[in-house]
Amino acid sequence: MLIDWIALGVFAAAVVTCAVIVWRKLPQLSSIRIESIPKHQQEARKQEILDQRLHQKLGNVEARIVAAFRALGRFLSGFMVAMVQRLRNLERDYRRKVVTQKAIDNPEVLRARVATLLADGHTAFDTGDLQRAEQCFVDVVSMDPKSIDAYLGLADVAVERKDYANAREALQFVLKLQQDSDVAYARLGKVASSEGNLEEAKVDLLKSVSLNAAAASTHADLAEIELNMGHVDLAQKALEEAIRLEPANPKYLDALLDFAIAQKRKPLAKQVLERLREANPENQKLAELAETVANL
Prior knowledge:
By secondary structure, the protein is mainly α. The protein is about 85% helix and about 0% strand. The protein contains 13 helices and no strands. It has helices at about 1-30, 40-105, 105-125, 130-145, 150-160, 165-175, 180-195, 200-210, 215-230, 230-245, 250-260, 265-280, 285-295. The chain is extended, with a radius of gyration of 47 Å.
């Protein structure tokens, strides 16, 4: 009986001792983090890498989907804009054809329509709306393929765009319709001059003068060509002829005065200055020009 009690006491002491040890070590055990174990760290790192790859792939797919939808949106938007523009063009062409047909069927309507389009075309050209001007002249040609004014208008538009090949082609059409068109030769001279072909320009302008010697602008253009070719006396003669035809035109008087000053021809400069003062007494540059002429 005594032995049993002794054994029970020893067992109780052992339990108490173990409890005390565990109690003391519990803070240390609780501070241990499972993720700090190397094996667990490796597993966590693998999972992290897999997650990153998954998100990256999903992100790429999402980006591609978004880009695809954006591209589709741009395509549809551009398609709709093009479609609307196409419908507008078709409607405009249809209306033009209807009006053209009515005009062709009725000579009076044709003349009125052509006159209106020519006026609109010249107005558009003067205001710098070359596209509108060109369309008006093209519409005239579609109604009246022999309209010289329309071809001249197309030539002017082409020259303004520096499209000299088309300008020359339009002017050749004019000459086929009217061989003695001084206006066409005058414009051909300007085209050749713009291209740097002074000899050709001179030939065309002289041809224009031979057909119509009363066009002051043609003489002025010829004077410029002669001056560029070094023919000073011929340039002066051409300018004087332009002024003879239009005595009060400040443009030609200014040109001749500039010529006289550049060539240091003082008597001529004084003479032209007086004529300029009579033609345009309100010219703000008269005093300055007078001083320049006095110093020649």
